[in-house]
Amino acid sequence: MQDKPIIGVVMGSDSDWPVMTRAADCLERFGVPHETRVVSAHRTPDLMFEYAAAAKARGLAAIIAGAGGAAHLPGMLASKTTLPVLGVPIPSRHLKGLDSLLSIVQMPKGVPVATFAIGEAGAENAALFAVAMLARTDDGLAARLDEFREAQANKAASMIVPPPA
Ligand code: RP5
Hints:
Its EC number is 5.4.99.18. This protein is α/β, with parallel strands linked by helices. Helices cover 45% and strands 15% of the residues. The protein has helices at 17-29, 45-55, 73-79, 98-105, 120-135, 139-157; strands spanning 7-11, 34-38, 62-68, 85-90, 114-115. The longest helix is centred in the last third of the chain and has 19 residues, at 139-157. 5-O-phosphono-beta-D-ribofuranose binds at residues 11-13, 15-16, 40, 67-69, 90.
């Protein structure tokens, strides 16, 4: 996107992208300027600290951070910024993301990370949550969020089971 980003979407590896693209796609749909980056807590720790430390001054309003396994990225980002950090547990090969979820959600008191569901639902909901935060001071965005909810409700209300033959 051309506009200055207001939401950062970061992840520990490009292998997280198939999940995290759901967050980016959602922000794109709502017209929220955002950036997408690989920032690893254990492979590029200096970059991670620089990213978090500079985020507020660069104009970001929140960071959506996805990580898998020993998923310390969201918590470490949160340790270096007071911006809201929204954590997305990435499904891992062996433990299917339960490791990621527990790593992200079990923050000791004092440094919060808002933690979402494992995988694609979590990535999309993190973006929707960011939209909801921004919509508090953006009437156009608030209207688009209302429309989204209405369309979703209409779709659910028109579902027929079993499906017509
Ligand atoms: C984490 O390690 C990443 O967030 C990713 O989910 C996981 C595996 O990374 P790769 O080995 O696929 O690069 O840092």
